[in-house]
Amino acid sequence: MVKEKLLIMHESILADYGLGGLDLSEICVIRYQSEEFIIQQGHLCPYILIILEGRMKVFNTASNGRTLLFCFNTTKGIMGEVEFAMGLDTAASSVQAMTDVTCIGIPRSRYQKELKSNAVFMNVVSASLAQKMFRSNNNNAINILQSLDARLCAYIAMTSIKGYFKEKLTEVAEMLGTSYRHLLRTLDNLCRQGILEKTRQGYLIKDEAALKQKGGDCYLL
Q: Which residue from 93, 97, 155, 200 puts its CA 20 to 30 A from 206's CA?
């Protein structure tokens, strides 16, 4: 994580969120590298983050250590608003960068009172919470009703790097709520269909259009 000073262009973005009149001296730009945790479940959540660019995955880890994927976040918006609205000091779920991610970080300890009295910003928070509740319901249905084939294709499409899928398969199986053997069978089937090819570097995506068609909009936020 690297913190940088705000630029004039960032001040205009804050104005869109109704924050143009704030003392911006403690607000900063925060950059995260790929695979770095942006928010980690059970850890302190000191910032409300306005996403500027990057791809992230959102997931939850149960007390038994098992992990379940909630969604991918590929759109601009805010993070940390759930904890902000509920008054929680620690994060309810984890958000991990899949690419380099850039955000504007607003320290909650400094600005919480001002933000909660800002009608424009609280409307943004309300809309974000409503969208996430809607998407959470949809993704719960996807986890139950969609085939592993579709969910895996969506996962590969979102996590591939330069045309290769290189994720640790035991972790992928856990994320998608399936067994390691079932995951391997599904990957083998995708290879037989000519969508993937197993190589030493990982699984090469040979037919990206077919992969995305099978994955549909699973897990997108």
A: 97
